[in-house]
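BUG-249 | component: ligand-complex export | severity: low

The export step for magnesium ion jobs runs without errors, but we want the raw record kept on the ticket for reference. Input record follows.
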Amino acid sequence: MTDPVLETRGLTKRFGALTASDDISIALLPGEIHAIIGPNGAGKSTLIAQICGGLAPDSGSVHLLGQDVTAQPMRVRARAGLGRTFQISALAMEDTVLQNAVLGAVGAGGSAWRLLGSALGDQALRERAEEALERVGLMPFAAMRTAELSHGQRRQLEVAVALTLHPKAFVMDEPMAGLGADGSRQMTGFLDELRCEAPILLVEHDMDAVFALADRISVLDYGRVIASGTVAEVRANPIVRSAYLGEEA
Ligand code: ADP
Ligand code: MG
């Protein structure tokens, strides 16, 4: 038995009468990409928010590297090794590419948010940021204003920001969103490499990407996991076909 890097146990979250997460138990194993799919409103972002600490569950727990982190705030989880990218960009558009990466590394260093100027002067932080930019191929654009990057490059920068934390697990909410076909293919190749560094819990609508990347897929519908298995198993599952894939056909 391999121990999961990240695990949820019986996560449940209600918004009034709506159960947005209904007893969700999923695991992310070393080396894998575990995709979470499901129609709009199925509860994917709500699940991710509870895993990352933006939203407290009504019941159930979240475990990172065997530690119960359910009561810990987002920033503590991040420092403990949870790397995330957001559905909506969290980059500072007027700052340079390098400044955004350094800000990520400041979080990793555990220091309070300093003035950007002094952070940029900190050699260790700068090196950590440059290493992450190198890793995603953005070093040539380090001095560029973030707003000038293409959409695909911004997505890569978000991954670089997460990389400065040297994460043990990645959680990504729709990293392909807004990318064209070429951008999606490029990002797919990149995530395929990234899984060697840390496993990825991947929420994604782009089914070509999911089928190409995922070792396992869990399907959410009305807050519940209605199926979980390999790509082939999930594609062949009649419940999934009617609840979700049928919708796209
Ligand atoms: P997905 O990411 O799969 O599209 P969400 O997790 O965003 O789904 O939403 C799941 C359900 O929970 C939806 O019905 C949504 O309207 C509802 N929901 C999400 N966040 C809130 C909130 N803060 N308050 C009330 N309802 C919410
Ligand atoms: Mg969502």
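Assignee comment: Attached the raw record above. The chain has two domains: 1-81+167-249, 91-166.
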